[in-house]
Amino acid sequence: MSVLFNLTVFLLVLSLIFTLAVFDQGLVWAQDAAQRAQLETQISSIESEIAALDKDLVQIRGRKETLKNEVARLDGEIKRAELTIKGLNLSVRQTEGNISLRSESIKEAEVKISKQKNSLSEYLRTIYKQNELSPIEILLVKKDLSQFFQEVSALENVQQDLNQSLDDLAVLRAQLQ
Predict the structure, then answer these.
(1) pLDDT above 90: percentage of residues in the chain
(2) Number of C-beta neighbours around residue 77 at 10 A
(3) What pTM did the predictor assign?
């Protein structure tokens, strides 16, 4: 009888710890607000039923121990264990939703990082091509001074784009961590 009671208390504590751990993580999950509210209402309802059953179990234990009372107590503990399992299953569903959302966020960030890497490669190739000629060589090759300044302006734009791309890449990496 005390083993069953200890098991019941252990399951209750485990379910509360699991539920608190899921909520404390603060992760947003993929289901809409109505589904989230429904799950939270179900979890709250189950916890209320568990608390009510715990009160009933305390009253039954206080009565004279008869076979009928023992059966009622065991039925109550079985129902409590079933509700605890149901609550844990709901918590698992909630956690799966959180994992799914996090996976999608990671995939999106990986795609953005890949695009940024491609942009960086292109910017670096452009800068390398521009650096093959010295400014004096560029001035001599160009027909007039305005072409030279256009070339210098284009190089500055590429360098600014490169810096922006590096900043964007740093932001994406920080989001993944």
Answers:
(1) 10
(2) 20
(3) 0.44
DSSP of the chain, one letter per residue? Answer: -HHHHHHHHHHHHHHHHHHHHHHHT----SS-HHHHHHHHHHHHHHHHHHHHHHHHHHHHHHS---HHHHHHHHHHHHHHHHHHHHHHHHHHHHHHHHHHHHHHHHHHHHHHHHHHHHHHHHHHHHHHHHHTS-HHHHHHHSSSHHHHHHHHHHHHHHHHHHHHHHHHHHHHHHHH-
Integer Cα distance of 41 and 38 in angstroms: 5
Q: Collect the ranges in the chain with pLDDT lower than 50.
A: 24-31
Quick one: three-class SS letters along 116-155?
HHHHHHHHHHHHHHHHCCCHHHHHHHCCCHHHHHHHHHHH
Report how far apart, in Å, the C-alpha atoms of 4 and of each of 17, 46, 54 are.
20, 20, 13
